[in-house]
Specification:
The chain is built from 3 helices and 5 strands, in the order βααββαββ. The chain has a single domain, classed as Histidine kinase-like ATPase, C-terminal domain (Heat Shock Protein 90, 2-Layer Sandwich). Helix 1 runs antiparallel to helix 2 and helix 2 runs antiparallel to helix 3. The protein is 34% helix and 30% strand. A 5-stranded antiparallel beta sheet has the order 1-2-3-5-4, covered by helices on one side. By secondary structure, the chain is an alpha+beta fold. Its EC number is 2.7.13.3.
Length: 125
């Protein structure tokens, strides 16, 4: 990860607006095409909402550009998230967030870190 990485923490639902604004601003500054900024913002919004719904400690986001990709880490105290899942049926009330993230991003990686989980999403610049 490059040294110049911008990040922010979030802990309550009222932080989600700031999260979306932060991610949008950083993505544009780092050269992500405007047409893809909404995709990134959607993915980060899904991940951070999951944090707030399924953990008690909030999380942290980091955003940077590297090797022709915009990289965004979402780190929280949650358990490892299962990716590679099928999209839930239209009748399902929940469970689409991670499936959406996986489909709109160019790559998704999840790994356990001390005290929680890191989800790294990447979009090609």
């Amino acid at each position: 990860m490059p040294e110049a990485v911008d990040g922010m923490s979030y802990a309550v639902p009222d932080d989600l607006r700031r999260v979306r604004a932060f991610v949008t601003e950083r993505a544009l500054a780092l050269g992500l095409p405007e047409a893809r900024v909404d995709v990134l913002t959607l993915a980060v919004s899904e991940l951070t909402t999951n944090t707030l719904q399924h953990t008690s400690g909030g999380g942290h986001i980091r955003v940077w550009a590297e090797n022709g990709r915009l990289v965004c880490d979402v780190v929280d105290e949650g358990e490892d998230r299962p990716f590679g899942r099928a999209m839930p049926s239209a009748e399902a009330v929940r469970g689409r967030g991670l499936a959406i993230v996986e489909r709109v991003c160019d790559s998704v990686l999840t790994t356990a870190v001390p005290g929680g989980t890191l989800v790294r999403i990447c979009l090609n610049l």
